[in-house]
Amino acid sequence: MNSALFLALRRMRAPLIVLIGAYAIAVLGMVLIPGQDGEGMPVRMSFFHAFYFISYTATTIGFGEVPYPFTNAQRLWVTFSMYLTVISWFYALGKILQIMQDPSFQQVLASGRFRRSVAGLREPFLIVCGYGETGSELVEAFDHRGVRTVVVDINAARVSEANLAGLHLDVPALVADVRLPDTLVMAGLEHPKCFGIVALTNDDDANLAVAAAARLLRPSLPVVCRCESEETARRMTAFGVPHIIDPFALFGAHLATALRKPGHFLLHEWLTAAPDELLPEPLFPPAGHWVLCGFGRFGSRVARGLEQAGNQVAVIDSDPALATSGKVLCGHGTDRGVLEQAGIGRAVGLIAGTADDVINLSILQIARQVNPELFVVARRNQRANGLLFDAARPSVTVQPAMVVVHECLAYLMAPLLGRFLAAVADRPNEWANELIARIAAITEERVPESWSVTMDDAEAPALAPSLAAGEEPLAILLVDPQRRHERLPVLPLALERDGALQILPPPETLLAPGDRVLFCGRGRARRKQYLTVSDANVLRYVTTGRDVPGGWIWDRVATAREA
Amino acid sequence: MNLEKVVFGFFIVLAMTLNFGFFIGDITAVEQHNVYELYAAIVVNLIATVLKFGDRTQVGALHLATSLVADLQLIAGAVVWAYAEHATGAIDPSTVASVVSLSGGAFLANVVSAVLLIIETSQLRR
Known about the structure:
A: six-stranded parallel beta sheet; B: mainly alpha; about 0% strand; elongated
């Protein structure tokens, strides 16, 4: 606000001086030129009367010639004064309007508003740098969960999209370059309620700059970075960025997991998908000969994943430079001859992974005409093309944006979940299948919610005091606080104590202060569980089975009755 | 030599001198205080104020503050004068005394402003 005011004042100097000068000349003239009263005697206007007269003339109000009709000499001067002062006013007003519409002034106003609304945030919030496909999906996902976000993007059109997106919560958005540390500070990097920063711009260098600034200015803040080149990923790792997401490599790894360990893949899908959606169908990609169209960032990493899982991959790309290596067939995936040359007839799977949605869809159609049994993976780049992909029914649709969103959600909303998934990655497939069956039993065909509870005063105020004795088992968190003989549909996935992770802790496990427990289940169960850990009376009912009245008097009465 | 500095210094010093010219004289004698001089002092003070707009430095802020004080005092003096002359009908010595003392306060603010100008100039030894 201050800087906007100063900017406006600085630009208003010339018009204000012109206005003051015009008034001064006109008023002085009116005072110096003698008039005549009713009897024809000479009379001079005082400064007060002259100022009054010029004020209503300059503003084109025009009360007329008071108190006496003017002499011709006065009228000559008034004619001059009218043009002088009215033109000065127009000049000043025009200048004000011009300043108001000036883009740089608007920018100063907008950043002032942004700075104030960020400073006024009282709930935990996340900074999202880059509001493209991925950024908008992520902001929407957090908005759905009631988490505040702050958006910074260099593109004004995208920022106005953020303002018009119809989100439930107010999202402060700013057009600025995230590579400048000042921008990040303005977006709340040093704000005590900021709980994370996500760099999702399509410029790897900008993401690296965000990561570097966040590591230096606030080392303890969780940082998530999207990165599409391995070179930048190495540099980010050197800077100590804990979480780097390469959507293409991530999907390549997922596909390899889906081929080798379908159980693990499904577990990962279930636990990281958006809660309350229908559970995704289990996916069983076949092993054998695969055809891959598009050998760019996505294709090369997926091919690596497929080959690691022991499949053969025939690669088609239109870039002749890639074809020189001999491994890649040069041509378009939409060309039936090229597809047949790549062995589409005997292939079990096809990946349409170019950067163009229409080409991907036409590859899919042509390949299915040759080989209707194909398992088809199609890459969807634009959110707007969702309808087309729904109609084309590929076996799997990959959205690089959603891959990033799920990973961000899992890392930022339930950090324990990421550790859990990493820890169970090398367990056998049967173990994962068994866990899936247990989760399916409690979630009623909907994606389960994952959450963690820390056994401290902030997150479990009722439970924390009795934990020091070490007599409360995990089982009390699995009981319905309204009917203690019934179990809540929740499953404890992991327990973290002193940095060590215990997978699937049994209900008898005794809780200790500072423990963090990762649960999964329906959102309803989560809210009931919150009652147990936060309300001392509910907790007493759950542990003892007696519905104890609250308050000091009833407490005394109850104790007396027992005795 | 910088034309901007000349104009800036000119208006600040002129505001102070005009103000002093009006202020000097017997505090109750209306004939020793010229109303045109008061008018000129107000106009020049207003222009000096506008010239100081937009400077974001510490000294700039102080400059602006002193000018605003001078404006306020001079305009208050002019209002008292106009009210006495047109609303109550006559200018008695006590009215003149209050107008002149108000302009005396404005003069003090203008002196501070001039001192600031000198300090600022002496800091830039170029």
